[in-house]
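In the design runs reported in the main text, the only information available to the sequence generator was the tokenized backbone. The following block is the verbatim input for one such run; it is reproduced so that readers can re-run the procedure and compare outputs position by position.
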């Protein structure tokens, strides 16, 4: 009898374990199932403060409120406004795309004698955190600018709580994309240390508008360090400095690694944007030359050492296909 009871116990235990495993598997599958987010329109209605607010279109808004005529003209002439005229398959962009449903703002009693609607009954853009502001833009641009925005959530700007409207002023003019000089000014307004580097004697021609910050960095993020647009730093430099690309028969080893081993990418007080002045830059890796006619005592060796610019003799510092005049005279011509 006890044996039957023990057998029944284990049978029940195994059956229960199997049942729990099946239920757990179904629950995991349910947790992994794709569920839609809260519809954006419902979210905007909550931000407006009324679930009864509705979308009425630009014509209805502007008919009741004439304060924004200039801004509406800018929008109509912009790349966003032209989408309706050109008949693209991109989503229609109008005032309510960013400001939310406007039905309650234009109701009788909310429009004053000067034809101004109650702007407090729109989405409170000034009160939203940066991530929520960016989400208003990403509801379109995450799909229609995916190649440019896919890394935004993990970018340095997003992590630093920088929102889209901090760089893109949509009501400033009909041109909603920043011009080149505006891009540099916008970036250097926050990146003060980089701005100081571009003020050095030897630098890239950023202030002259010959290069832009976005020529090297993607402000919306990338899979590379520092938001670089190239897979690695060397590839980025070689986009412009093709004369040092090689391969060479005699090649400087550091050239195959990283240009920043020797050069500051933004600017430097030393010629050729070097990180350290010659010959001390070279002496960090190389022992240097001494005068063989000098005595071998340490003090004499120091007196007989060469402390001039290494590139006075080793002019082809990145590499060359021509051997020097004598053994050991590498990278000289």
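Verbatim output:
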């Amino acid at each position: 009898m006890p044996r039957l009871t023990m057998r029944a116990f284990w049978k029940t235990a195994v059956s229960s374990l199997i049942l729990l495993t099946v239920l757990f598997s179904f629950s995991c599958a349910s947790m992994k199932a794709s569920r839609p987010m809260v519809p954006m329109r419902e979210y905007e209605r909550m931000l407006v403060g009324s679930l009864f607010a509705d979308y009425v279109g630009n014509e209805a808004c502007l008919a009741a409120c004439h304060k924004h005529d200039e801004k509406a003209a800018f929008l109509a002439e912009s790349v966003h406004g032209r989408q309706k005229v050109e008949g693209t398959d991109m989503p229609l962009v109008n005032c309510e795309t960013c400001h939310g449903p406007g039905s309650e703002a234009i109701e009788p009693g909310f429009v004053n004698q000067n034809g101004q609607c109650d702007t407090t009954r729109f989405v409170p853009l000034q009160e939203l955190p940066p991530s929520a502001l960016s989400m208003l833009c990403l509801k379109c641009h995450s799909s229609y600018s995916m190649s440019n925005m896919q890394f935004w959530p993990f970018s340095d700007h997003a992590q630093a709580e920088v929102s889209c409207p901090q760089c893109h002023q949509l009501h400033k003019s009909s041109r909603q994309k920043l011009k080149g000089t505006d891009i540099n000014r916008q970036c250097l307004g926050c990146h003060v240390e980089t701005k100081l580097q571009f003020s050095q004697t030897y630098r890239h021609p950023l202030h002259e508008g010959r290069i832009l910050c976005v020529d090297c960095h993607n402000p919306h993020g990338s899979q590379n360090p520092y938001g670089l647009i190239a897979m690695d730093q060397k590839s980025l430099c070689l986009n412009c400095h093709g004369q040092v690309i090689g391969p060479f028969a005699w090649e400087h080893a550091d050239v195959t690694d990283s240009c920043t081993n020797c050069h500051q990418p933004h600017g430097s007080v030393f010629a050729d944007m070097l990180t350290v002045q010659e010959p001390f830059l070279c002496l960090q890796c190389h022992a240097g030359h001494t005068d063989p006619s000098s005595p071998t005592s340490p003090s004499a060796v120091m007196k007989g050492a060469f402390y001039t610019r290494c590139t006075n003799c080793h002019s082809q510092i990145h590499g060359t296909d021509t051997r020097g005049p004598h053994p050991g005279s590498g990278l000289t011509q």
